[in-house]
């Protein structure tokens, strides 16, 4: 039987309503994804039995909090090397432009066939959905969220940036290196003009990092420039200017897994992970509530000696075993645990375990393992809320990298970092990120 | 190797000097946000085999920087000054090797036996010289530290500072007095002002920048270490430590205007764009300066050329005895006394300041994809001396003054050279290795040439360096950090090379037509990069001479660094080449025995170590007897 359906005004109205309803439902679903991804503490904050704001976790009570502390840091507290002061869990809301860019692209981004390929990304967080433990590529999606995160915003500078090399046994500071670091996103820009891309961009760069050593004399004027292509399958181009040679030298990738200027960090460690997605095999290990180094810089007792300037700014102080631990407070936060295993078998590491903050997609804690599988280094990057930092950082929606500690547990040695992070486009113009700038700046 | 310990006092002084650096209370860095004042004090103490103390240099260097910000149309205005002063105590502590008591009486070989300087034959009234004007004192035999006279050319060379003994001091070129040797920066070119310049930018609306540096400065071209293929704008002070110091420390800064037009990422036409593009103009408007090749009597005299020049100038000015000369055959000849103005070096023609004598360079440099590149062009004066024969001199047999063919009587010139070249760097992902290439083609360079009547000829020269850098883990030596391996091969091809076989040997250009030198740097890093052992090896393939320089740097703390190193050579040292004793300049009196029908000015190829063998030995071969232990302590503030 063939029934003819003649549309009536009523049926047309019903169909339109259905479509509109479906669209509205999709919009609502997408908005739920956005809200869940960027505002996880909107309705409630995590809690743990016995844990309260203001308390100190030390050798005496750490066992009670084993579930919310990563294994490396747990051992440090168990050994009596440091303690954790618990702070209130607060929202580190990212820049509105970044959230909006994510909102407009929800569901439009997908992975390519091989690791390192991504389709449909323009700006914002590419995969804001909750990771699915059954998705074999969930870890890779989280890695992309980090790579395309709002880590330092569209551009920023750490000026100055103090690295101290410390003997963890004696506490002796062996070396202090003073840097300026600069970051610039060429693509995926959401806030600072030009948006969304700086042009011309002949090599289709995604991001560039430039740093210059200010002190001490033997490495003064050493400069490093890293160009990261949008195509993740393409290797970084890196150049090093050596002050004592007054020459720009192109770097081989092997040199980015070497100790940078003798520190406990390799270039690949910068910001938690500073390499290609395709250099690693990524595995999502689960979602947990964990204590993470998030705090308000201005509420801390700061280091009065290392840095003084006309802003009255002071850097984070360090204490504990060997002076390797930042004097900060920690928040109980939602964390994704992600494991990265180097594709290259000659890589000095067998794996890294990253504890990725779910709201900001920064990587405040990483534990690295050597080729034998033994714990080698642990990396802490303290995150400061921009509204409680320098006045210029207020309202920028950037989770400010504000202190770091890279501990080589095998060598009982650490490198600590004290930042003056400044979200200020004037400090990182595009002209700074080309090779000629290295030559022009070197003297 | 046996190192001769000349006296305990030297080493006591050396160690005391080094240790005292650690105790010097220094002020901390003067730091305002727009001003920087830094510096260092350093003691470098070297001991040389068979000589004892060869360096006891104490240096104070100050670096001053003042940022002035934006002034009028100029952005990023900045002033920079680097001042350096040093005192090398070797001229006082080891003065019988390098100072006022250096040298002594010499004996010169002849078929009549060894004779003292002044004891050679003088069979005509025009030959012979006044021994009172040119006494047998304060001299060494040319090349004696490296080779015997061996039936070849030799003569006495004065070695004392020019205020103590002015014989052989070439006015305006190699004429340093005691204080200029001791305090090398305090001279009439004000070298204590090592750098003094202003930087400023002009920013254009399109984002391009005109970036200028004006003042006394170093301008560095090229991408390679050690070899100077494109890095030829500033002359170099080889008297400091031969070829082995960092070029930053031994380039001689010049008054230069350097302007870069920085375009950054640039689309040339649709679909073709550079990641970075830069045009540079360099105008070296300073009065010409040659390389400092070291004055005879200094510890570092590259190729021993300074000694050859000084001995030759002394022969011209005062006359002197030359070993194995008259009637020479491969079995030697008679030690002969020449008179003034007959053979030798008359003078150096130092280019005066004029617009025409300034030097101009252009460079286009950029990045295209994974390739870094530069194209370079430079017109400049050769910083190495060229000996041109063909000057009027007296015939030792007739007394006539004229230009004689192939007579070993020279003036020193610094000819105009034009250079074009380029460089590349490329990172190969497949083998994780960076390759660096640098090449130059020059015209106008001059080479000694015993086939020509003026004893020199011009040749175009092709030079290149190919370098590769790779980090390699060697777990047995260091589990945590890779070793840096950096290898380079340097090629030089003299395109208008001339050489012929003659009765007693080859004549022509002593330098090899094609030659290559390889270097390898291996560097490790321990104690968080505070202890860095390294070995630098250089091998000259045709000279068959190798230098090995192991060293360890220890950063005691951010301020204090100790470096202990050595510099050892293996392989062949002195080499022989046509010495022009058989060039027959004063025909028929100087015809070579055993050579039938020899024409005036025609070399029979009779060879010996001096003077041209040095070009076959090269800087490594000529320093075969200069093995050293080196200790340097630096306190930075």
What does this structure look like?
The complex is a heterodimer of chains A (443) and B (637). In chain A, 14% of the residues lie in helices and 33% in strands. Chain A is an alpha+beta fold. Chain A has one domain (18-176, 264-425). Chain B has one domain (8-636): Porin (Beta Barrel). In chain B, the strands form 8 sheets. Chain B has an 18-stranded antiparallel barrel. In chain B, strands 15-21-18 form a 3-stranded mixed sheet. Chain B is globular, with a radius of gyration of 26 Å. At the A-B interface, strand 6, strand 10 and helix 5 of A face strand 11, strand 12, strand 22, strand 23 and strand 24 of B.
In this structure, how is the largest beta sheet of chain A organized? 16 strands, mixed
End-to-end gap of chain B: 38 Å
CATH class of chain B: Mainly Beta
Q: What's the CATH topology name of chain B?
A: Porin
Largest interface: pair, residues per side = A-B, 52 and 65 residues
Mean pLDDT of chain A: 93
What structural class do the secondary elements of chain B suggest? mainly beta
**DSSP strand tally of chain B:** 34
In DSSP terms (H or I, runs of 4 or more residues), the helix count of chain A works out at 5
Average of the residue pLDDT scores of chain B = 92
Shape of chain B: globular
Q: Per the principal axes of the C-alpha atoms, what is the gross shape of chain A?
A: globular
């Amino acid at each position: 039987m063939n029934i003819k359906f003649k549309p009536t005004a009523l049926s047309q109205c019903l169909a339109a309503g259905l479509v509109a309803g479906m669209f509205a439902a999709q919009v609502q679903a997408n908005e739920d994804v956005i809200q869940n991804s960027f505002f996880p503490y909107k309705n409630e904050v995590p809690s743990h039995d016995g844990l309260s704001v203001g308390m100190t976790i030390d050798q005496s009570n750490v066992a009670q909090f084993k579930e919310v502390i990563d294994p490396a840091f747990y051992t440090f507290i168990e050994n009596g090397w440091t303690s954790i002061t618990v702070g209130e869990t607060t929202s580190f809301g990212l820049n509105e432009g970044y959230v909006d860019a994510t909102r407009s692209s929800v569901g439009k981004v997908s992975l390519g066939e091989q690791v390192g390929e991504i389709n449909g990304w323009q700006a914002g967080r590419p995969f804001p959905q909750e990771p699915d433990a059954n998705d074999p590529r969930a870890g890779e999606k989280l890695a992309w969220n980090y790579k395309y995160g709002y880590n330092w915003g569209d551009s920023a500078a750490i000026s100055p940036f103090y690295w101290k090399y410390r003997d963890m046994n004696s506490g002796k500071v062996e070396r202090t290196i003073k840097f300026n670091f600069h970051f610039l996103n060429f693509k995926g820009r959401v806030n600072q003009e030009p948006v969304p891309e700086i042009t011309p961009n002949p090599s289709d760069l995604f991001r560039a990092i430039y740093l210059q050593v200010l002190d001490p004399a033997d490495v003064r004027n050493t400069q490093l420039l890293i160009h990261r292509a949008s195509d993740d399958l393409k290797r970084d181009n890196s150049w090093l200017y050596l002050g004592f040679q007054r020459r720009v030298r192109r770097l081989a990738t092997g040199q980015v897994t070497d100790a940078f200027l003798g520190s406990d960090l390799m270039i690949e460690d910068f910001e938690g992970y500073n390499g290609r997605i395709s250099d690693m095999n990524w595995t999502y290990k689960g979602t947990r509530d964990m204590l993470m180094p998030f705090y308000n810089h201005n509420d801390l007792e700061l280091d009065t000696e290392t840095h003084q300037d006309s802003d009255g700014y002071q850097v984070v102080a360090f204490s504990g075993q060997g002076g390797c631990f930042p004097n900060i407070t920690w928040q109980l936060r939602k964390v994704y645990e992600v494991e990265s295993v180097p594709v290259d078998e000659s890589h000095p590491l067998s794996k890294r375990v990253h504890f990725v903050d779910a709201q900001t997609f920064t990587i405040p804690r990483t534990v690295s393992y050597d080729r034998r599988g033994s714990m080698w280094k642990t990396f802490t990057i303290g995150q400061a809320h921009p509204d409680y930092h320098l006045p210029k950082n207020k309202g920028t929606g950037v989770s400010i990298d504000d202190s770091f500690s890279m501990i080589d547990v095998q060598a009982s040695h650490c490198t600590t970092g004290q930042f003056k992070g400044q979200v200020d486009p004037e400090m990182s113009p595009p002209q700074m990120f080309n090779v000629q700038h290295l030559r022009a700046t070197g003297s | 190797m046996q190192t001769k310990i000349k006296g305990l006092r030297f080493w006591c002084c050396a160690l005391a000097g080094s240790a005292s650096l650690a105790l010097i209370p220094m002020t901390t860095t003067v730091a305002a946000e727009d001003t920087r004042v830094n510096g260092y004090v350093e003691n470098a103490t070297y001991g040389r085999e068979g000589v004892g103390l060869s360096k006891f240099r104490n240096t104070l260097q100050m670096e001053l920087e003042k940022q002035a910000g934006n002034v009028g149309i100029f952005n990023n205005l900045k002033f920079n000054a680097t001042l350096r002063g040093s005192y090398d105590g070797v001229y006082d502590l080891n003065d019988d090797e390098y100072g006022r008591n250096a040298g002594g009486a010499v004996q010169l070989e002849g078929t009549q036996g060894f004779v003292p300087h002044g004891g050679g034959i003088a069979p005509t009234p025009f030959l012979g010289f006044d021994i009172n004007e040119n006494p047998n004192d304060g001299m060494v035999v040319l090349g004696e530290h490296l080779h015997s006279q061996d039936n070849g050319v030799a003569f006495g060379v004065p070695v004392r500072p020019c205020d103590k003994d002015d014989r052989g001091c070439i006015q305006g070129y190699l004429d340093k007095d005691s204080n200029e040797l001791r305090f090398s920066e305090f001279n009439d070119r004000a070298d204590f002002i090592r750098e003094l310049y202003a930087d400023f930018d002009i920013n254009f609306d399109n984002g391009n920048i005109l970036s200028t540096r004006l003042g006394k400065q170093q301008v560095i071209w090229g991408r390679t270490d050690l070899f100077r293929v494109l890095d030829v704008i500033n002359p170099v002070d080889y008297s400091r430590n031969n070829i082995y110091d960092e070029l930053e420390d031994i380039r001689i800064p010049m008054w230069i205007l350097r302007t870069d037009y920085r375009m950054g990422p640039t689309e040339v036409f649709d679909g073709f764009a550079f990641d970075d593009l830069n045009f540079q103009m360099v105008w070296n408007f300073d009065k010409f300066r040659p390389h400092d090749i070291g004055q005879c009597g200094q510890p570092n005299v590259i190729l021993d050329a300074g000694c050859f020049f000084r001995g030759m100038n002394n022969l011209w000015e005062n006359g002197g005895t030359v070993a194995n000369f008259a009637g020479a055959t491969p079995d030697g000849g008679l030690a002969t006394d020449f008179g003034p103005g007959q053979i030798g070096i008359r003078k150096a023609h130092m280019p005066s300041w004029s617009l025409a004598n300034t030097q101009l360079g252009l460079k286009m440099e950029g990045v295209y994809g994974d390739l870094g590149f530069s194209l370079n062009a430079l017109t400049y004066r050769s910083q190495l001396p060229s000996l041109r024969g063909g000057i009027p001199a007296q015939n030792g047999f007739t007394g006539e003054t004229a230009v004689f063919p192939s007579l070993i009587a020279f003036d020193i010139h610094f000819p105009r050279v034009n250079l074009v070249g380029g460089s590349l760097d490329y990172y190969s992902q497949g083998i994780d290795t960076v390759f660096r290439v640098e090449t130059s083609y020059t015209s106008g360079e001059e080479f000694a040439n015993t086939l020509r009547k003026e004893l020199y000829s011009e040749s175009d020269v092709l030079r290149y360096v190919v370098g590769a850098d790779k980090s390699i883990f060697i777990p047995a030596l260091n589990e945590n950090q890779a070793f840096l391996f950096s290898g380079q091969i340097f090629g030089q091809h003299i395109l208008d090379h001339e050489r012929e076989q003659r009765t007693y040997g080859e004549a022509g250009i002593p330098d090899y037509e094609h030659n290559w030198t390889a270097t390898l740097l291996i560097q490790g890093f321990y104690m968080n990069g505070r202890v860095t052992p390294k070995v630098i090896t250089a091998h000259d393939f045709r000279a068959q001479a190798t230098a090995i320089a192991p060293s360890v740097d220890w950063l005691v703390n951010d301020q204090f660094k100790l470096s202990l190193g050595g510099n050892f050579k293996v392989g062949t040292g002195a080499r022989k080449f046509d010495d022009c004793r058989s060039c027959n300049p004063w025909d028929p009196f100087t015809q070579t025995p055993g050579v039938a029908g020899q024409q005036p000015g025609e070399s029979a190829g009779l060879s010996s170590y001096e003077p041209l063998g040095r070009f076959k030995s090269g800087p490594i071969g000529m320093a075969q007897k200069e093995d050293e232990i080196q200790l340097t302590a630096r306190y930075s503030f």
